[in-house]
């Protein structure tokens, strides 16, 4: 929440200052071991509400994201998180968590939050599985 508040405060900054702040934020979130999913959601929020006037700054930000996440040049932030999401799904399949989540959802005795907490997955992930039922 504090990051979102700071982001809204930064919208009045010049493009150059916003760019420096966004790059700093990405590095800091990685250092603090935020998940890629959490970083993606924050970046989506920030990009939706705080836009650069100069489109070249978007390119520079994307290049910085590519460097920070060691991506091939052709892969952008959206592709990064889609790839990471698929990797997470494959890992969870191997652990059988998806089937466990489905069973718990069908029983209806636990809340979405309880299922996510018990199986160590995100609430969004449980909701995604619920949509498939």
Explained architecture:
By secondary structure, this protein is an all-alpha fold. It folds into two domains: 78 residues; 37 residues. It has eight helices and no strands. The longest helix is centred in the middle third of the chain and has 19 residues. The mean pLDDT is 76.
Which terms would index this structure?
single chain, 133 residues, mainly alpha, 8 helices, elongated
Shape: elongated
Number of helices: 8
Which bin fits the share of residues in helices?
Answer: over 70%
Biggest sheet descriptor: none
- Structural class, judged by helices and strands? mainly alpha
Residue-averaged pLDDT, rounded?
Answer: 76
N-to-C terminal Cα separation, in Å?
32 Å
The total domain count is: 2
* Strand tally: 0
Range of strand content: under 5%
| Unreliable runs | none
Helix/strand order, N-terminal first: HHHHHHHH
Radius of gyration equals: 18 Å
Tell me the layout of helices and strands:
Blueprint: H1 2-10, H2 15-31, H3 36-49, H4 55-68, H5 77-95, H6 97-107, H7 112-119, H8 123-132
In short:
By secondary structure, the chain is mainly α.
């Amino acid at each position: 929440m504090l990051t979102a508040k700071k982001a809204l405060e930064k919208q009045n900054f010049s493009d150059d200052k916003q760019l420096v702040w966004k790059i700093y934020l990405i590095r800091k979130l990685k250092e603090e071991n935020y998940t890629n999913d959490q970083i993606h959601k924050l970046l989506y929020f920030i990009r939706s509400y705080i836009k650069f006037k100069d489109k070249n700054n978007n390119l520079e930000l994307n290049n910085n994201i590519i460097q920070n996440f060691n991506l091939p040049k052709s892969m952008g932030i959206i592709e990064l998180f889609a790839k990471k999401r698929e990797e997470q799904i494959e890992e969870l399949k191997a652990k059988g968590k998806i089937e466990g989540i489905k069973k718990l959802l069908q029983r209806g005795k636990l809340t979405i939050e309880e299922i996510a907490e018990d199986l160590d997955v995100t609430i969004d992930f449980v909701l995604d599985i619920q949509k498939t039922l």
